[in-house]
Design a protein that fits this description.
This protein is of the alpha/beta class. It contains 18 helices and 15 strands.
């Protein structure tokens, strides 16, 4: 509920600190005293568009601060928690409206956006002004009224979840079907790439081995000439290296008998001779095996060309080709294991559609059972609100076969029809011409559908326009009964309504330092008698008028 309201420099209000009580609070005062400013201030802290013209003359900005108490588990408490503003039991909204520049809004000291402000505001206060009853002409609002009366709100919440799931799966299936041909082409392309790489029979290290072999095969003639020259030097001529080493070894071996100190040199020469002999044998074998092989050269060249083409095609090296091959293999295997994606999507959609249909049928049954009881209850309330001949009919149509007409609350459509005058057929609310009649219909519905888990504060801005006498008293009593469930704030001109209040606030306009200023004053018992008497009798207040005021107050 709204605990307090502080207003600074808004229109005719310069400085106001107002504490508000539970139950029914009425706001009265002379025409032009500034009652509408109170509603404007609350509208601003609920996120309405700010008009710089509301800033008090001679000041640069207006500021409104509203302090709300939030019940645990309420929609507002859940919004605060889910939006990251904690789970505190108090909500303080401060709105700064500058004459120039952007508005600023703060929630518990943190800056918030206008959209956030409006979201939270709708959960805190239901503002029912002279035009807000126009919401009732909307089909979705009438459906919501029926669901609230029938106690189906929990099911409609679940219905919304099932509807969203069904819509998402339906769109996903349509998207999947639309892209099926493209998906098949992509899979076929991946399959081709994988087969191409598999047929290439890639091996680790093959690229390096082929390069070395190609280099050797392409230089057979040069290699034969080089090896032949080496063999000629080592063992092919009378003065070859091997013969010189052999002769040197024989000589030093003979000298060793005369000087043993030549033993180490002898070993070195012997080793050189042996290694040279081994090198000669190795080169002779190499030369025997080194033959030109045009076929093998062509094979190696072709294989290298094949691998080069694959590398260029995929913009990678041999390591990348190996990794791509493994990746394609895994993807294709996974798709095969998952099965047909369209079939799976259809199965999921079928299950979601069935869940939606089952709950929609339940909702339809529950709604139909409450159509006539709600109509009779509205009639009863309207009869007591000055519409004694009111006839109410509630029609419901269902269209389960047309999926395009399904909505988040099911496939039903509800329309409330009312006739306020005898002999006239009931019409839809959009065809009811009288705003006064719509206001009373709205009030009747609020009484019927009072729910503590909704917005905890209701504000009625002169919804009693156009009535008087016993009807006005009946409206007052209904508003007072609403105060048992909600905090109800009502701007009224009717003494019969004002007399039913738990708290009475009077708006009066004074002249301060040559400038008009509105004040809102809480009235005590004596002040309330005087204000009710003023509303009953005007300027001249007689003893009998005061007595009538006291009688009104005592009858509540």
């Amino acid at each position: 509920m709204l605990h307090s309201l502080q207003i600074r420099n808004l229109a005719l209000i310069r400085d106001l600190d107002l504490d508000l009580a539970p139950g029914l609070t009425v706001l009265t005062g002379e025409t032009g005293a500034g009652k509408s400013i109170f509603v404007d201030a609350i509208s601003l802290v609920l996120g309405d568009r700010g008009n710089p013209q509301l800033v008090r003359h001679g000041t640069e900005q207006a500021e409104i601060t509203a302090t709300f108490g939030i019940a645990d588990g309420s929609a507002a408490a859940e919004w605060m928690a889910s939006s990251g503003f904690g789970e505190e039991g108090t909500c303080i909204i401060r709105r700064i409206l500058p004459r120039q520049g952007r508005n600023r809004i703060f929630l518990n000291g943190h800056a918030i956006s206008t959209s956030q402000n409006r979201e939270l505001g709708e959960l805190l206060v239901d503002l029912l002004g002279q035009n807000t009853h126009l919401r009732m002409v909307r089909a979705d609002q009438q459906m919501d009224l029926l669901d609230r009366y029938a106690g189906l709100r929990e099911k409609t919440d679940r219905m919304g979840d099932r509807y969203r799931k069904w819509r998402e799966l339906r769109e996903a299936q349509r998207t999947l079907r639309a892209g099926l041909e493209q998906h098949a082409a992509q899979r076929e392309w991946r399959q081709f790439l994988w087969e191409e790489l598999e047929n290439a029979n890639l091996h680790d290290g093959e690229w390096e081995d082929l390069g070395a072999e190609l280099q050797r095969l392409g230089a057979v003639t040069q290699l034969r000439e080089t090896v032949a020259t080496i063999l000629s030097i080592l063992d092919g001529r009378p003065d070859s290296t091997l013969r010189k080493l052999t002769e040197s070894y024989r000589c030093i071996h003979q000298a060793l008998g005369r000087d043993p100190s030549l033993g180490e040199t002898e070993k070195l020469l012997e080793g050189a001779r042996i290694q040279t002999e081994e090198a000669v044998h190795a080169l002779q074998h190499y030369l025997q095996d080194l033959e030109a092989d045009p076929d093998r050269l062509a094979q190696v060249s072709s294989r290298i060309q094949q691998l080069q083409d694959l590398q260029r095609k995929h913009h990678t090296d041999m390591t990348g080709l190996m990794e791509l091959f493994s990746q394609l293999k895994e993807e294709l295997a996974a798709e095969s294991a998952e099965g047909d994606p369209v079939l799976k999507a259809e199965e999921s959609l079928r299950a979601a559609r069935q869940d939606y249909q089952n709950l929609a049928k339940e909702l339809g049954t529950g709604r139909r059972a409450h159509l006539d009881p709600l109509a009779r209850a509205i009639e009863s309330q309207l009869h007591g609100l000055g519409l004694p001949h009111a006839v109410v009919e509630i029609h419901m149509e269902s269209n389960p076969d047309n999926e395009e007409s399904w909505l988040g609350k099911g496939w039903d459509r509800v329309e409330i029809r009312i006739s306020a005058n005898p002999g006239h057929p009931p019409k839809s609310l959009s065809e009811v011409a009288s705003g006064g009649e719509l206001s009373r219909i709205n009030l009747a519905l609020q009484v019927l559908l009072a729910e503590p888990e909704g917005a905890e504060t209701l504000i009625f801005d002169e919804v009693d326009v156009g009535v008087g006498g016993a009807v006005a008293e009946r409206i007052g009593r209904l508003l007072r009964s609403l105060g048992q469930h909600y905090q109800v704030l009502c701007v009224t001109h009717l003494p019969q309504v004002a007399a039913q209040c738990h708290q009475h606030l009077k708006v009066q306009k004074n002249l301060e330092l040559g400038q008009a200023e509105s004040q809102i004053l809480p009235l005590d018992a004596m002040g309330q008698v005087e204000e009710i008497a003023r509303m009953l009798g005007g300027i001249e207040i007689s003893t009998s008028i005061r007595a009538a005021a006291e009688k009104l107050l005592s009858a509540r």
